[in-house]
Amino acid sequence: MMTGIAAVNPNDQAVLAEREGALRAWLASAGSVLIGFSGGVDSTFLSCVAVEVLGADQVLCVVGRSASYPQAQWDTARAVAAQFNLPLLETDTHEMQDAEYAANPTNRCYFCKRELWSVLVPIARARGLSAVLDGTNADDLGDYRPGAVAAKELGVHSPLADVGLTKQQIRSLSASRGIPTWSQPSSPCLSSRIPYHTQVTSARLQRIERAEAAVRALGVVGDMRVRFHGPLARVEIGADELEQFFTPERAAQLQRAVIAAGFERVALDLAGFRSGSLNVLAGVRADG
Length: 288
Description:
The chain has twelve helices and seven strands. The chain is of the alpha/beta class and 288 residues long. Strands 3-2-1-4 form a four-stranded parallel sheet, sandwiched between helices. Strands 5-6-7 form a three-stranded mixed sheet. β5 and β6 (232-237) form a beta hairpin.
């Protein structure tokens, strides 16, 4: 959980100003944009700056809805769009009907993003919008992200990454604007909780979504994942909130909550939350 932003020294402030200026220039040169919008840290910041630079009539924020994204995330997306007057369109995507996606290979995200952008790019063309954008940031370039291949194939741009803005810089700039998502934990799609080569099904995604909502209901507000391992749920919680579940009472509460969501057994991962830990387990990314 992020409880505050550390003081930024003058040199860092200069970097922030330079990169934000580069982003504004990038958007101005585009003229009009469609943004793949999730209501997360990156896409919300990008959307707010795009509306500032181009005006709301030259921006469209599009949510691609499917079973792989939790309802709470869509609620956040709608709320932040309403707060900042972001033009919002919701449309359905159908990656769950793609056998290649459902088989859950190590490049599953490629098939997900291929479906998403295959839906969003034609919307941009039909509305006369010049560029289609995603919220990829500079940190993402060093991670295993097969979805970026699909984005490139379909001509999607990543201006945050192009101008060198990192996640922490985006959080800092968001906080300075009063954008509430600045402290929001990252929330990739629910399919990312299922080990590679284990079939992705709507029933499994719903079980994961219920379990994560139950853990949130226990008061966990920071980074958290419920990883699917058949009848076993492996729960990862951020280091600053993990220790509270070492007491018998809190451990029992966690167990009851996750079992009520549909799992048979619960394991609290003592290593805590790690982004992309299933990538590490599958050998597609090194640990650390």
